[in-house]
TrEMBL record:
This protein's name: Metallophosphoesterase
A Pfam family assignment: Metallophos
Species whose genome carries this gene: Chitinophaga qingshengii
Sequence ranges assigned to domain Calcineurin-like phosphoesterase in this UniProt record: 1-217
SUPFAM superfamilies to which the protein is assigned, alphabetical: Metallo-dependent phosphatases
Top-level taxon: Bacteria
Length: 281
């Protein structure tokens, strides 16, 4: 099984699918699922944009990609996504329409993840709920934790909610091993004063093999977690810089075979084929 991993797409939800399609064509390696670490930019109604997204959207229509491409059906997009036949599994970020996502989550309360788009190709994880990704030969145990933490005790919907905290508490009691943890925020072990305590609690109490996160604006890096078990990976935001190319570490491939996990950092020589100026073609 192979997972393609991205973070912070901010509306460019078609771009991970396009990168995966190109990767499969050029390498001959099949991708089974896409994982995405939050800040999808899931705003179906442009009246509900937050201030930051509205500001960026004035200069870059890509910020509105969910509204433009995934709310009303486009037959060309549907045909292409059906042919690609890969689902994207996400966690919430802090830049989303959380009222919209709350309604869908409540409608799918018995499921570990729920579809949010017209094509039913983009799914959002319920925080703290164990789930499995399956192919005929392999199973990966996955947990997602969305939104961000806040040391000041703020409770608006950008921040982790009490019902999500309760699910994470249940997860801590099981002590079942997790192959992959995806979060938007990082844990709160940093002295810089941000992060989410609940993520740290999971890493300290549950065996986790890989943890992927975004949000912080830091460059790509991978390191051993403080727990001595988890490989912690900061995924670069899927954002084009001033040069019009994607940064190092913005596309990762995690391969699972015979219970072994191997991480590939897709080179910029590959991602540079889809620049700020041609990726929509």
């Amino acid at each position: 099984m192979r997972l393609a991993i991205f973070a912070d797409v901010h509306g460019k939800l078609l771009l991970p699918f396009k990168l995966v399609d190109l990767y499969q064509q050029q390498t001959g390696k099949k991708i089974d699922f896409i994982l995405q670490c939050g800040d999808m930019g899931a705003y179906p109604d442009l009246h509900n944009l937050d201030k930051a997204t509205l500001k960026h959207a004035r200069h870059n229509r890509d910020e509105l990609g969910f509204h433009d491409h995934f709310v009303k059906e486009d037959k060309t997009i549907r045909q292409w996504l059906d042919q690609l036949n890969i689902d994207m599994i996400c966690v919430r970020g802090n830049h989303e329409d959380h009222d919209f996502l709350d309604k869908l989550e409540q409608e799918h309360a018995r499921q570990p993840r729920f579809p949010i788009d017209i094509y039913q190709r983009i799914f959002v994880c319920r925080s703290g709920i164990k789930q499995e990704l399956r192919t005929p030969d392999e199973v990966i145990r996955l947990v997602g934790i969305g939104r961000i933490g806040d040391a000041k005790g703020r409770t608006d919907k950008r921040f982790i909610q009490e019902y999500e905290q309760r699910e994470i508490k249940k997860l801590l009691k099981t002590n079942d091993a997790i192959d992959v943890l995806i979060t938007h925020d990082k844990d709160d072990s940093s002295e810089r004063g941000y992060g989410m305590r609940a993520i740290r609690e999971v890493l300290d109490n549950v065996p986790v093999r890989y943890h992927f996160y975004g949000h912080t604006g830091e460059p790509f890096r991978q390191e051993q977690d403080l727990n001595g078990i988890t490989r912690s990976v900061k995924v670069s935001e899927l954002e084009y810089g001033s040069t019009g190319i994607l940064p190092e570490g913005s596309m990762l491939i995690l391969e699972y075979s015979k219970e072994e996990l191997q991480l590939e950092v897709v080179s910029q020589r590959f991602t540079n084929q889809l620049t700020q100026y041609n990726w929509r073609d």
